[in-house]
Design a protein that fits this description.
Length: 222
């Protein structure tokens, strides 16, 4: 009996140690701490809304704009309308437990990191009304749990990734007022808006050009 107890205790220690190691980045910091710090470092924060994000802290769940699960894993990043500028760090993709990202109504520039596609648990992504440019990364097609996606009012260009038509739970999509071009994937969200993209057409047929015609929008709020 005693030998069994010792074995069970050692097994628990090993498992706990393995889990702790898995959550550490290469420099020894927890990924749940290191990734937000890298996000902060690439952003300009004129009003100091992210000042509580301290790299020496072991508890990101106490930081402003962040919500965590009971297991102290970052599940939500919400900083809308905070006058943030700079770029969105690729390390956002390391916060693999994220379910909600609200960064709308800021002045964030640069491309949407392809690493966003690593957020397999993401349900809501709102990067609207920023100054994002470049193409929508095809990795959005990996966001299999995504329900709600807003990228409107940026300067995104290029085609709508065909991978975005494969998102089984996507209910709402707003890509309006960008510089997108090319054909519309065969199946998008049940509710979507493409107005303000005059180069988006279906097979170059004017009656099917959605650049100037708003699409039906849902009547609900998040």
């Amino acid at each position: 009996m005693e030998a069994s107890f010792v074995f069970f205790f050692l097994l628990l220690v090993f498992v706990s140690s393995s889990l702790s190691t898995a959550l550490l980045s290469t420099n020894g910091f927890s990924t749940e701490v290191q990734s937000p710090i890298e996000i902060k470092n690439l952003l300009e924060d004129p009003h100091g809304v992210l000042k509580s994000w301290d790299k020496n802290s072991v508890d990101p769940c106490s930081w402003a704009m962040i919500t965590c699960s009971p297991d102290s894993l970052v599940t939500s990043l919400e900083a809308p309308g905070q006058h943030l500028s700079g770029r969105l760090a690729p390390s956002i993709g390391d916060l693999t437990n994220l379910e909600t990202v609200f960064l709308q109504n800021n002045n964030i520039t640069g491309p949407i990191p392809a690493q966003i596609g690593k957020l397999a648990n993401l349900r809501t992504l709102d990067l609207s009304s920023n100054k994002l440019c470049g193409e929508i990364p095809s990795s959005v097609g990996h966001l299999g749990r995504l329900h709600y996606l807003r990228l409107n009012n940026n300067t995104l260009s290029g085609p709508i990734p065909c991978e975005s038509a494969n998102l089984p739970h996507l209910f709402f999509l707003d890509l309006s007022y960008n510089n997108l071009s090319g054909p519309i994937p065969g199946s998008l969200a049940r509710r979507y808006n493409l107005v303000g993209n005059p180069l988006i057409c279906d097979a170059n047929r004017e009656e099917n050009c959605y650049g100037t015609a708003p699409m039906p929008m849902p009547m609900f709020f998040f």
